[in-house]
């Protein structure tokens, strides 16, 4: 959290929604001048929606605690000058996110090519669940045009393999809870798993990542299989 807040453009107002964390997140955020509110965890979509409702500035930049702005993106956010109301036709900006594993960025499975709507006009933005209705990997939507900014969000979410496995288990369980049990869907996911693995390696240049690329490509390929298998267990 401290690295994130220290890397934001100077002078921005910061609101931190803390889900009763047991570490020093709230204290660190307050030490950096952020407004902090502690609230019971009610899911990703609900938390994002609530936080957006607490923003009083014309523009909002949404970041998670494990994300950082690189220097290029930080300067691009300032250059866009959204707080001045310039560029009225643009309702939001897509930011590229680079996800890291064990301290290094990964290209496999599109981990370095995500374009996420994260900077938007507060009164023209809303958040929705993902395509299958799961309370995970939510989508931000704006009423109006969206443009791209250079630079990247550095997503340091998996400092260890143990942290990756823990989130993999959690996320697949959340998605499985939103799906009806289906043997056919499970078999389709199983049949296409090898193709997804190869695609994740070749399409995004994951072969350049060494063991990290192979690991991410394999785990990404089996993700749908695990989700469908967990959904079947409820039958």
Describe the structure.
The chain folds into 2 domains: 2-157, Spore Coat Polysaccharide Biosynthesis Protein SpsA, Chain A; 160-232, no CATH class. It contains 7 helices and 11 strands. β1 (15-18), α2 (25-31) and β2 (35-38) form a beta-alpha-beta unit. α5 (161-177) packs parallel to α7 (211-232) and α6 runs antiparallel to α7 (211-232). The strands form 3 sheets. Strands 3, 4, 5, 6, 7, 10 and 11 form a 7-stranded mixed sheet that branches. The model has no long low-confidence stretch (mean pLDDT 92). The termini are far apart. By secondary structure, the chain is of the alpha/beta class.
Strand-helix topology:
Blueprint: H1 2-6, E1 15-18, H2 25-31, E2 35-38, H3 44-54, E3 59-61, E4 67-69, H4 71-80, E5 90-101, E6 104-105, E7 114-121, E8 125-128, E9 139-142, E10 145-148, E11 153-158, H5 161-177, H6 183-202, H7 211-232
Parallel strand pairs: 1-2, 5-10, 5-11
Antiparallel strand pairs: 3-7, 4-11, 5-6, 5-7, 8-9
Which properties best describe this structure?
globular, 39% helix, seven-stranded mixed beta sheet, Spore Coat Polysaccharide Biosynthesis Protein SpsA, Chain A, single chain
The CATH architecture category of the largest domain equals: Alpha-Beta Complex
Under CATH, the topology of the largest domain can be stated as Spore Coat Polysaccharide Biosynthesis Protein SpsA, Chain A
- Which strand-content bin applies to the residues? 15-25%
Helix content: 25-40%
SS summary, helix count? 7
Give the total of beta strands. Answer: 11
Computed structural class: alpha/beta
Average residue-wise pLDDT:
92
- What low-confidence regions span 5 or more consecutive residues with pLDDT below 50? none
Domain module count: 2
- Listing every helix as H and every strand as E from the N terminus to the C terminus, the arrangement reads HEHEHEEHEEEEEEEHHH
Largest sheet: 7 strands, mixed
User: What best-fitting shape do the alpha-carbon axes yield?
Assistant: globular
Quaternary organisation: single chain
């Amino acid at each position: 959290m401290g690295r994130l807040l220290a890397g934001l453009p100077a002078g921005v107002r910061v609101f931190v929604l803390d889900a009763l964390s047991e570490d020093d997140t709230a204290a660190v955020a307050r030490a950096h001048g952020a407004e902090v509110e502690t609230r019971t965890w009610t899911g990703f979509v609900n938390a994002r929606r609530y936080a957006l409702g607490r923003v009083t500035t014309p523009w909002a930049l949404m970041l998670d605690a494990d994300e950082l702005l690189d220097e290029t993106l930080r300067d691009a956010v300032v250059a866009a000058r959204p707080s001045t109301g310039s560029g009225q036709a643009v309702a939001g900006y897509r930011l590229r996110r680079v996800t890291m594993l064990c301290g290094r960025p990964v290209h496999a499975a599109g981990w370095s090519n995500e374009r996420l709507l994260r900077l938007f006009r507060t009164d023209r933005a809303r958040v929705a669940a993902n395509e299958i209705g799961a309370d995970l990997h939510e989508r931000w939507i704006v009423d109006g045009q969206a443009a791209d900014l250079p630079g990247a969000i550095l997503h340091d979410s998996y400092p260890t393999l143990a942290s990756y496995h823990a989130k993999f288990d959690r996320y697949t369980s959340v998605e499985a809870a939103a799906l009806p049990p289906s043997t056919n869907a499970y078999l389709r996911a199983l049949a296409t798993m090898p193709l997804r693995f190869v695609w994740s390696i070749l399409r995004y240049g994951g072969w350049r990542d060494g063991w990290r690329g192979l690991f991410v490509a394999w785990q990404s390929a089996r993700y749908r299989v695990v989700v469908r298998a967990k959904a079947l267990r409820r039958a």
